[in-house]
Design brief:
The protein is mostly helical. The chain contains 12 helices and no strands. The radius of gyration is 17 Å and the shape is globular.
């Protein structure tokens, strides 16, 4: 029997408990009354807020209401919006052809930011290529750990590798959300985990750096941050649901 390569992560101190707590918190929010009749509206708002947060984490912060009004043309923000909007349509492709899905995410994120020759093409580096192949194997069925753990690993690894020119962080955050969509944890795209990363940005940056060390403490730091961001995203869903009901 082959050992699951990500299973040891759950043995790190407090990680399994943090994963369970994050899963429970999100599950609790899925009973919100707004999702019964206004689920599409809620999902659209989650998508918008996720894109704004992702662009901000890439150094391009914009007022959410200005973005909603459609007056922000800044290319990183526009790329984040395109990525957020495309995720539901890529969820079937992701587990079958992860590298193809990543290329599509990069084309969406980096349009107008990198050369035509760079769009959708990873940097020419054999180490990056080998690690992308290993990551793709995990996504394509190489692990059975919680989708939350796989999403965290995909996110952290892509942040560390920066395999594409331009806004690689937007691609990494989109790919992590694709894990949650495609594995059935968040099939409706209701979890604004990127808002959690944005609200805890200093921790996000520090934990991502710790993940890059590959040490047990570094991996633990990133996983605990990721689960905390999921909880913030769950709280965000509740807040959005309340706002939608109040406006109905």
């Amino acid at each position: 029997m082959t050992t699951d390569p990500l299973a040891p992560l759950l043995a790190l101190a407090d990680v399994a408990d943090a994963v369970e707590q994050a899963r429970t918190r999100f599950d609790q929010t899925l009973g919100h009354r707004a999702l019964r009749r206004h689920g599409g509206q809620v999902a659209a708002e989650v998508s918008l807020r996720s894109a704004v947060a992702s662009a901000a984490l890439e150094g391009r912060a914009h007022d959410r209401e200005t973005v909603r009004a459609g007056t922000v043309t800044e290319p990183v923000l526009q790329g984040a919006l395109r990525v957020a909007g495309a995720l539901p349509g890529l969820s079937d492709l992701w587990p079958k052809a992860p590298r193809q899905a990543l290329a599509k995410l990069h084309v969406l994120a980096a349009r107008e930011l990198v050369t035509e020759a760079e769009l959708g093409r990873p940097v020419d580096d054999p180490v990056v290529a080998a690690r992308l192949d290993a990551l793709a194997a995990l996504v394509a069925g190489g692990t059975q750990v919680s989708p939350l753990v796989l999403a965290a690993v995909v996110h952290g690894e892509l942040l560390n590798l920066r395999p594409f020119a331009g806004p690689s962080g937007v691609v990494a955050r989109g790919a992590a959300r694709l894990v949650l969509l495609s594995r059935g944890f968040d099939p409706r795209g209701l979890l604004a985990v990127d808002v959690g990363h944005r609200e805890r940005e200093p921790e996000y940056v520090g934990a991502a750096g710790a993940f890059a060390t590959g040490t047990p403490d570094g991996l633990r730091s990133w996983l605990r941050h990721y689960m905390a961001a999921v909880e913030v995203g769950a709280d965000q869903l509740t807040a959005i649901g309340d706002e939608v009901l109040a406006a109905a």
